[in-house]
Amino acid sequence: MTGRRWSIRAATLDDVAQIRSILAEHGNDGPIENADIVGPYVAHLVTNGRALVADEDHGLVAFGATVATGRGRHLADLFVRTDQIGRGIGRSLLDAAFGDDWPRTTFASDDPRALPVYIRAGMFPLGICLYMEGPAASIPRLDGDLAVEAADPSRVADLEREWTGIDRSVDHAHWASQAESDVFVIVDAGRAIAVGHARARQVGRARALNRLVVAPAVSPVPPILAALRRAGRGGPVMATFLGTNAAVRPLLDGGFRIVDRDTFMASEPGLVDPDRLLPNSGLL
User: Fold this and answer.
1) Taking the model in full, what pTM does it have?
2) What share of the chain is helix, strand, coil (3-state, %, to 5)?
3) Where are the domains of the chain?
C-alpha cells in the first residue's frame, strides 16, 4: 500500500529501535530507570500481533499494531511521527491494522484528534479509563480471608479460558516474562476467584498490577483490593480501571490518585466486563 512517498509493510524485530523512537516522541517510551518494559512489549506485538509500519526512504514514520483478544481485535498502538501528522498516514495504517476484523476495541488518549479517527473506524466512546496509583498500605482491608498464591502462567491462562471461553495463553506467557513478574491466583476457601499479573515499571517507584481477571458471580472488589496489595509489595502500586469499576471509590477514599485517563472505545457494547477486568491497556 502506498501513499505519496511512504508505504505500509509488516514490522520486523529489526524495526524495534525505530518504533521506540516514534513512541518516545509521544511520551510512550523513555529512560529505563528500573527495567525495560516497552522493548519486550513492542517485540511481543511484532511477533504475535498484526504490527505494521509506514516506511519512507529516510526511515519509519509511523507504527500501528492490533492484537486478537478473543473479544475482537484490539488496537494496541497507533503513532505517527510528530512532524508527519496530517498526511493521512495514521488512517491508512489504522485501516490496514484492523483489516476486515470485527468487533474492534482501543483506548484513545485525550488528544482530540484521535476520537474522530477511531469513530470513523467504527468504534465509539463507551467510558472513561482511569490510571490510578497509591500506596499498597492504604488499601482498605475489605478482602477478609482471601489467599493469594503464586501461579504458573499456564494455570492462569487455563482459569481465564474456563471463566470467559477466551484463550490468552500467548499473552499470559508474555506478561509472565516481564521484569520482576509476579503471577498469582486469588483463592477463597480453596476456590480460585481471580488471576493476575504484576511487574516492575520502566520509570518510577510504583509497581504495576499489569492485568487482573475476576471470576464470574464473584463480588469483584475484595479480590481487586487483594491483588493490588499483592502487586504493590508494601510500596506504591498502579493499575488501570474502567471507570464504572466499584473499586474506584474505596481506593480514592484510601488515598489513591487518578494520574492519567483514556477513553475506552469499542464497535459494540458489552465486549468487556468493567467490574471483572482490570485491563492491560496495550493488550486488553
Assistant:
1) 0.95
2) 30, 35, 35
3) 2-101, 131-278
